[in-house]
């Protein structure tokens, strides 16, 4: 049953537009045949010394995390000199520690770790580093820089900031503009950071007031429920920022059910369905702010470079940087084609 | 202290006899006290909502919204109420809703159209209920453990089916049911389903042998067995019923959200248990009402609505919810001790 | 009277429970170093008295003096601190803890006030067990793995782990083999030699003769004799005191008809359960009441429950109106026309949260329903007819059954079977928890139900009840029928001799 029913099947079956966009996206961008990221390898592309990379991530119970795994695997396949040892994702801290320890014992050359819980896995990061295995820490950061050689991750504050600035520019000159915010799970630090960034950006636009904020739970169901309440609470507003494209599916459903329009909506994360809606441009969703899962591909690039003792192409440095914060780009109708291949399902 | 006063019924002293036998009157009075206190809470909430956000709260659309949001968890709660009355517990309701909702929204299922989705959701719900029932009734497993196991497996299977991805429903026939155009005389179809399930649940509990047996099994399983009731078969049916309600709720959720996701039904078990308990269902079994449970659901949904309309955040909502559960149980303990 | 004040002296203790006066001015005094036996039939008040002594029940009136000083036994802990330990019949051990943990439960040897010194506890336990003659019980074993006799030893070790001056033993020999009883008596001897007093409760007169110093006999909540010499008081006198009437029961007259005239409704053939009762044959005819007389543990309730299908027999079968019943199925029994009024009415028969009507109709719901749909008017009418026929008070079908008196609750159970149309009634201690005054009415009801052509199998530990109500009596001792006779050919002394001594003493 499950194989008949995967989302991939659904999208290829029903979203011909998406498939077409994917092809054009690849060619128009003059990139390689690699659809997950921009295709530009971080280090020199010539095959070098063989590198075994251990990859440990959480359970892929969310579209974005799924995309992380996909990006890592595809990127690794692209390099003939890279062998990827990927563990079964787990949300259980103890299980993940065990998996990473196994990778250490197997003496992989480099580790890429997306911890289920950054603080809880710091010790095992330190252990790997002491064993002489460089660790690329993906997104959820360890407690101490000693536990990783290089951190690469998204910018939650930047997401809010860029969403705020985008909305600010779009509502320029509109006096008494009202915006609402549909936040993610409120007990996560990242939700606070996204809201903080959004609020800080809006301070630059005195004509805009944030009139309401409700927190959903990154799920379609909660997105629908909370958005329905927000729509009832605010009979009119000009813009909506939704933290997460997954819950955005529910939010869009609520907007449709309430028969509301006349405002612009900005999403977050970069789901394929959001890209497609932006490209179609027949609804309220006009843009989404990236939290790019391509960071996993980049992490593989960094790990390979570390394993081969190379630096980053295009920079003057001999060494790989200690930390890389990705830019939370805003994707709207203008540039959506370029990002389409990176959209996750 | 109150026990001493209890055997000579205090209410018979107060109420001057007129027509009906006094004991019957006091029974009705006690049943009513519980329901009335819930109605009182609801009225107070409506007052608060009406004062704080008169335009948005006292609005037909808002009534439709509150009732629609209550429908999914409401249907689950009706099934849960039966299980708790019978002395059991079903921790797997949220997971069953999730599994049913994703199984019913796979590409393969969607090819069978509206009926395919409805049928799959209901069958998956009933199937999970069957497994729960067999484990509890014939496998002699403690309901807490059996349904906890079902919770874990159903969530796992739901994740496996979806791969963590949101399954979007593309069938207009299903989606349209959740739109305003489908409202009949201003009543959303989801709310109608909720109402029908409530009425059937009430009738089954109060007017059928099935309901009587459920209460008997929950009140005193040994006495029920020695009175000639097939306790095990009754338990099996009760978990089947809960599964059926989960299947229906899953279909409603598909219509409402236009999708199926493995994270659906998150913590429904706690919401449904909480609603049943503030509605006066004894967690130890033997007593409970459908009306009380439904009022419990409406109270929770109304609180969420008022808080959202007033732009209060989820932390405050959760605190209020907890306080209401404690208050309701305390009030009931007092009314129970004077019964 | 004693040169120094008695160790314990309880004066005019009364204790009432709703509807029952369990203790009605009981006096008891116990000297240090003696074995003081408590005798009495079931329901005489022995258990209540020892619970008062253990601090588990508070007396309504009366005073307790301990070593000459007035005390209030507010809780079991107070009693334990004074040096009063109780070994209950149903042993109160925690099965999932070890022997040592059970022995020291609540007063574990600790270091720094909270760290349990497990080793010290085990050593102390081992010493106690050796003193009790059971060094083979390892202190580290789980109590759940021990035999009943071993558990009793552990219970005793627990009592001795306190600084104890008085030990109450509630039927300690009931679960023991003869060898183990000898060991128990040796322990009792050691204890009394060390100045510890023992309050010993037993049904077995021969035990009392062997180890007792003095005897107090309880009857209907009163001490009918206090401090008799245990070894020299004639058996006949003791039995007379135990059975002496304080309240005259009124039994309905037996119809003057041939007991063999009715059709056999219930036939039990070779029914047996290992360890509970030996193969049993009996027949109950239409219109006949057959009584089973015996003590607790004689297998009475087990027999009834097995006949009813609530327990699965190891051998034999039950035949109702000529058709054998499916063994071990209550539903089959009910369908064949059997009805049980169980011993523990509240736990086994009644839906305490429900109304009288629903309690009465619960076994006959299909009669008032079509397609599962209940005709509530018909239900109410039928239930009301049944309760009125039995004069159930109050006559309010919607009253919660828990508000009824014990006798009326029993009537509700009988009405259930009356409504069901059952032909064979199994009554287990039908007057337990029923006021003395209300019993006569209940007896009349039972007789009437029989006269209407039903077969009644009655179990009671109250011998006069069996003799007064039944047509024919089977006397049980330890799972075996030791005597069968028409009730009018037996008297209470004879039956008591039979159940206590095991052999006809005529």
Automatic annotation (TrEMBL), chain A:
Keywords: Signal. One of its GO terms (cellular component) is cell envelope. PROSITE patterns: PROKAR_LIPOPROTEIN, TAT. Residues 53-310 form the Periplasmic binding protein domain. The keyword Signal applies. Pfam families: Peripla_BP_4 (PF13407). GO terms for molecular function: carbohydrate binding. It is found in: Cell envelope. InterPro entries: Peripla_BP_I, SBP_2_dom, TAT_signal. Residues 28-47 are annotated as: Disordered. Coiled coil: none annotated. PANTHER family: D-ALLOSE-BINDING PERIPLASMIC PROTEIN-RELATED. Belongs to the bacterial solute-binding protein 2 family. This is Solute binding protein. It comes from Streptomyces zinciresistens K42.
UniProtKB/TrEMBL annotation, chain B:
The keyword Cell membrane applies. Its main location: membrane. One of its GO terms (molecular function) is transmembrane transporter activity. The chain crosses the membrane at residues 33-51, 63-84, 91-108, 114-135, 142-162, 182-205, 236-256, 290-309. CDD domains: TM_PBP1_transp_AraH_like. It is found in: Cell membrane. GO terms for cellular component: plasma membrane. Keywords: Cell membrane, Membrane, Transmembrane, Transmembrane helix. It is a multi-pass membrane protein. InterPro entries: ABC_transp_permease. PANTHER family: ABC TRANSPORTER PERMEASE PROTEIN YPHD-RELATED-RELATED, RIBOSE IMPORT PERMEASE PROTEIN RBSC. This is ABC transporter integral membrane protein.
């Amino acid at each position: 049953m499950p194989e008949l029913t995967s989302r991939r099947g659904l999208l290829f079956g029903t979203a011909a537009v998406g498939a077409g966009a994917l092809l054009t996206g690849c060619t128009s961008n003059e990139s390689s045949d690699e659809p997950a990221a921009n295709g530009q390898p971080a280090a020199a592309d010539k095959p070098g010394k063989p590198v075994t990379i251990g990859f440990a991530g959480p359970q892929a119970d969310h579209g974005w995390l799924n995309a992380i795994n996909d990006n890592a695997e595809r990127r690794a396949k692209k390099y003939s000199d890279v062998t990827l040892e990927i563990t079964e994702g787990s949300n259980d801290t103890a299980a993940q520690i065990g998996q990473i320890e196994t990778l250490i014992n197997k003496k992989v050359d480099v580790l890429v770790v997306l911890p289920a819980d950054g603080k809880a896995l710091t010790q095992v990061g330190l252990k790997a580093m002491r064993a002489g295995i460089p660790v690329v820490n993906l997104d959820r950061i360890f407690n101490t820089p000693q536990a990783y050689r290089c951190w690469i991750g998204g910018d939650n504050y930047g997401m809010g900031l860029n969403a705020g600035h985008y909305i600010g520019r779009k509502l320029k000159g509109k006096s008494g503009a009202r915006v609402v915010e549909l936040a993610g799970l409120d007990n996560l630090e990242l939700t606070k950071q996204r809201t903080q960034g959004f609020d800080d950006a809006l301070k630059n636009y005195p004509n805009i007031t944030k009139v309401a904020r409700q927190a959903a739970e990154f799920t379609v169901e909660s997105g629908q429920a909370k958005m329905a309440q927000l729509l009832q609470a605010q009979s009119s507003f000009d813009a909506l920022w939704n933290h997460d494209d997954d819950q955005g599916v529910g939010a869009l459903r609520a907007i449709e059910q309430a028969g509301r329009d006349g405002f612009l909506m900005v999403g977050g994360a970069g789901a394929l369905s959001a890209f497609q809606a932006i490209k179609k441009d027949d609804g309220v969703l006009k843009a989404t702010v990236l939290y790019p899962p391509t960071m996993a591909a980049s992490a593989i690039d960094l790990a390979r470079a570390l394993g081969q003792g190379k630096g980053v192409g295009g920079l003057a440095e001999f060494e790989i940087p200690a930390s890389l914060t990705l830019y939370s780009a805003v994707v709207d109708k203008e540039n959506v084609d370029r990002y389409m291949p990176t959209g996750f399902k | 202290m109150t026990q001493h006063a209890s055997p000579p019924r205090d209410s018979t002293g107060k109420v001057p006899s007129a027509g009906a036998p006094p004991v019957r009157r006091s029974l009705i009075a006690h049943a009513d006290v519980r329901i009335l206190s819930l109605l009182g809470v609801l009225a107070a909430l409506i007052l608060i909502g009406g004062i704080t956000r008169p335009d948005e709260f006292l609005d037909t659309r808002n009534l439709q919204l509150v009732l629609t949001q209550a429908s999914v968890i409401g249907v689950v709660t009706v099934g849960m109420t039966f299980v708790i009355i019978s002395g059991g517990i079903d921790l797997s309701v949220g997971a069953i809703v999730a599994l049913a909702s994703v199984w019913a929204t796979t590409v393969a299922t969607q090819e069978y159209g509206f009926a395919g989705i409805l049928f799959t959701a209901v069958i998956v719900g009933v199937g999970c209920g069957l497994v729960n029932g067999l484990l509890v009734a014939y496998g002699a497993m403690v309901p807490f453990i059996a349904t906890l196991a079902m919770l874990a497996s159903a969530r796992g299977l739901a994740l496996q089916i979806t791969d963590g991805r949101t399954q979007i429903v593309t069938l207009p026939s299903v989606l349209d049911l959740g739109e305003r155009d489908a409202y009949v005389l201003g009543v959303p179809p989801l709310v109608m389903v909720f109402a029908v399930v409530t009425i059937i649940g009430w009738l089954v509990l109060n007017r059928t042998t099935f309901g009587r047996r459920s209460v008997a099994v929950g009140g005193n399983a040994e006495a029920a067995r020695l009175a000639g009731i097939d306790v095990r078969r009754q338990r099996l049916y009760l978990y089947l019923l809960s599964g059926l309600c989960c299947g229906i709720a899953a279909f409603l959720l598909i219509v409402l959200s236009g999708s199926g996701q493995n994270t659906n039904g998150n913590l429904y078990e706690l919401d449904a248990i909480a609603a049943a308990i503030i509605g006066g269902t004894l967690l130890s079994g033997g007593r409970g009402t459908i009306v009380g449970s439904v009022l419990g659901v409406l109270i929770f949904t109304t609180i969420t609505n008022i808080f959202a309309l007033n732009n209060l955040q989820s932390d405050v909502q959760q605190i209020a919810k907890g306080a209401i559960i404690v208050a309701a149980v305390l009030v009931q303990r007092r009314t129970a001790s004077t019964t | 009277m004693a040169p120094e004040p008695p160790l314990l002296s309880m004066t005019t203790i009364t204790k009432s429970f709703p509807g029952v006066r369990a203790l009605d001015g009981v006096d008891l005094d116990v000297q240090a170093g003696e074995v003081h036996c408590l005798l009495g039939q079931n329901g005489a008040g022995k258990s209540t008295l020892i619970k008062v002594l253990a601090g588990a029940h508070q007396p309504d009136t009366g005073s307790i003096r301990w070593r000459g000083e007035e005390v209030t036994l507010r809780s079991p802990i107070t009693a334990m601190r004074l040096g009063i330990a109780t070994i209950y019949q149903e042993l109160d051990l925690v099965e999932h803890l070890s022997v040592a943990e059970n022995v020291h439960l609540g007063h574990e040897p600790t270091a720094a006030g909270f760290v349990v010194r497990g080793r010290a506890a085990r050593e102390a336990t081992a010493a106690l067990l050796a003193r009790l003659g059971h060094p083979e019980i390892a202190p580290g074993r789980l109590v759940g793995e021990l035999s009943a006799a071993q558990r009793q030893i552990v219970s005793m070790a627990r009592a001795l782990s306190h600084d104890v001056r008085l030990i109450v033993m509630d039927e300690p020999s009931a679960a023991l083999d003869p060898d183990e009883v000898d060991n128990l008596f040796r322990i009792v001897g050691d204890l009394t030699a060390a100045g510890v007093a023992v309050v010993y409760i037993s049904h077995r007169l021969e035990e009392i003769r062997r180890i007792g110093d003095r005897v107090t006999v309880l009857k209907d909540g009163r001490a009918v004799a206090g401090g008799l010499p245990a070894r020299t008081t004639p058996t006949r006198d003791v039995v007379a005191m135990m059975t002496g009437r304080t309240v005259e029961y009124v039994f309905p007259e037996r119809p003057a008809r041939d007991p063999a005239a009715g059709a056999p409704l219930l036939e039990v053939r070779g029914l047996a359960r290992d360890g509970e009762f030996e193969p049993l044959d009996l027949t109950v005819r239409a219109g006949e009441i057959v009584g089973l007389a015996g003590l607790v543990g004689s297998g009475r309730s087990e027999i009834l429950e097995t006949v009813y299908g609530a327990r699965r027999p190891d051998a034999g079968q039950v035949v109702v109106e000529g058709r054998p019943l499916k063994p071990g199925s209550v539903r089959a029994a009910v369908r064949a026309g059997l009805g049980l009024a169980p011993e523990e009415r509240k736990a086994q028969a009644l839906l305490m949260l429900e109304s009288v009507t629903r309690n009465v109709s619960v076994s006959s719901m299909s009669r008032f329903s079509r397609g599962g749909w209940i005709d509530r008017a018909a239900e109410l009418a039928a239930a009301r007819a049944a309760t009125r026929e039995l004069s159930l008070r109050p006559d309010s079908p919607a009253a919660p059954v828990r508000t009824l008196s014990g006798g009326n609750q029993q009537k509700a159970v009988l009405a259930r079977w009356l409504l069901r149309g059952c032909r064979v009634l199994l009554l287990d201690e039908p007057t337990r928890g029923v006021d003395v005054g209300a019993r006569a009415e209940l007896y009349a009801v039972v007789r009437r139900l029989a006269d209407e052509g039903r077969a009644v199998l009655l179990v009671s530990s109250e011998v006069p009840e069996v003799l007064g109500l039944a047509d024919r009596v089977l006397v049980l001792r330890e799972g075996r029928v030791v005597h069968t006779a028409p009730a009018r050919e037996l008297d209470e002394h004879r039956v008591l001799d039979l159940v206590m001594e095991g052999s006809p003493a005529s």
